[in-house]
From TrEMBL:
This protein's UniProt keywords: Repeat
Protein name: Nephrocystin-3-like
All copies of domain Nephrocystin 3-like N-terminal, residue ranges: 10-133
One Pfam family cited in the UniProt record for this chain: NPHP3_N
Domain of life: Eukaryota
UniProt key word Repeat: yes
Gene from which the chain derives: LOC104952030
Length: 146
């Protein structure tokens, strides 16, 4: 799936609470970072629901800053909450064109993100050819649309 030709939908890792989804993703990221030095990994692990780790603006801001650290300064980054959610897909598209390898976005417990269906819908839009997405969900709280 991760090496499949584009366009590829997000890879969905699902399971019950405590089934090892987060551990699987963290071990996979560590292994892939060693094996694929040209791949940029942008990842976020959501802690508890309704905590700052589940706030969409803060998640996207963190991913954007990490993305921009590899390419440009963050001077063009808007800190306005409504704009950062809107601008991330454009930054991703622009910067992925300059990156020689793949960019893999991993979001653990995406179903715990506040208003995920509204703020994270860019994940299912066509992404640049070298961008892949992996998300995990709790089968008990996953929106049916996913």
């Amino acid at each position: 799936m991760i090496a499949a030709p584009p366009p590829t939908p997000p890879l969905l890792v699902s399971g019950g609470p405590g089934s090892g989804k987060s551990l699987l993703l963290s071990k996979w990221i560590a292994q892939q970072q060693k094996q694929s030095p040209n791949t940029l990994f942008l990842y976020h692990f959501v802690g508890r629901p309704l905590s700052t780790s589940s706030e969409p603006v803060l998640i996207i801001k963190r991913l954007t800053v990490k993305l921009l650290q590899h390419f440009w300064s963050i001077s063009g980054l808007s800190m306005e909450p409504s704009k950062i959610l809107e601008e991330f897909p454009r930054w991703l598209e622009r910067l992925s064109a300059r990156h020689q390898g793949n960019i893999i976005i991993i979001i653990d417990s995406i179903d715990q993100i506040q208003q995920a269906e509204r703020h994270m819908k860019w994940l299912i839009d066509p992404l640049p050819v070298n961008v892949r997405v992996v998300v995990s969900v709790n089968v008990e709280t996953c929106p049916q649309a996913w």
